[in-house]
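Data availability excerpt. The first of two example chains:
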Amino acid sequence: MSVNEKIISVLKENGIYSFGFVPFSDCSPVNKRLYDECAERGMKSVIIFAIPYKTAQKPKDSYKMSAYARVYDYHKKFSLIFDSLLCELKSTFPEYGFLSYADNSPVNEKTAAALSGIGVIGRNTLLITEKYGSYVFLGSVITDMETESTRTALSVCIGCGRCAAACPNNAIGEKSFDFEKCLSYISQKNVKTDEEAELLKKHGTVWGCDICQQVCPMNEDVSLTDDGYFTDSFIYELSYAFIEAMNDADFHKYPFSWRKKQTILYNISLINSYNDNKKDDS
């Protein structure tokens, strides 16, 4: 069994089915300190993989909240994955070193994933995988072991333009993305302008925005996750009272907890007020 085959076996044992291998030297740094540390340790390969988070569950409320935010925080999921994955890799290859990352990687994980062949980059800047579409989180394991590269030419989406046409605030350009116009970014701001507040009210947006993903043809008929970590934590009925009643331990299990409660409660109150006014006018 080759090195790659052994690694793939370990990945699949840990529920990872979308992955690729690229040389560390081919990856672009995003954290120079961590990148230099990896270079000094003689790291040679990046094992990049995608974890799906979109479930089959449907919310019963009418609030707009990104699919990733209705389930438990993916950082904690990656901690669980890496605890098991690194233990097995170190047991299989005791002579080599392994470092794991999710979000705080020394390399650009999105570009590494596209280079490895597991997906393409959309105009909305998201990685779109063949198996799970763009509803994925990326993780990476960097090692001083030589692996067989699956590198391909860096590719982009089909360029249909549906995401740009559907974006409520024109954040997606022909060859650019203005994150400050993105409804997801706006929803997470502590302080919003009147115009930004109006956007949230108009679109019923509490946290995040999936509009560009929902209209993407490459997201049609993709595989969903049946991982209990995500399915069992799905928020079916979001409300002001639901968030307000959460204790700190439960609140911090969700990805929106990196902001204090007040941010998400403010967004919900904006929408509630907007909807109440519409009822009064009708």
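And the second chain:
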Amino acid sequence: MTERRRAHRYELFMPLQVMAGTSHFPMAHSAHLRDISTHGVYFISEKSISPGTAVDVTFTLPPERGRPESVIVRGSGRAIRLDRLPGDSGPLFGVAAAINRFDFIQPGRRAA
């Protein structure tokens, strides 16, 4: 099998806020980020998101050495794959999303 990924993936396990659907009927819910690359994310959700659906994801990177403040990361793109996963209290879904744009926002900083 040949590798189809365009960028290296990084495991990153943290809470994630997801907005999926159309601008007229958005669906907001919490999920858990599993990995990220420069072109996409994979997250675990209790909600099914059909491939082709517009998604916006938001998560917060905590402060670390060299960066004393947290950073909010927002990404916009489309769901490209849905995996059904077993769950203890019901079905879970793995959602792969291609992200067209990431924005990084430092709280408390004003735009110039």
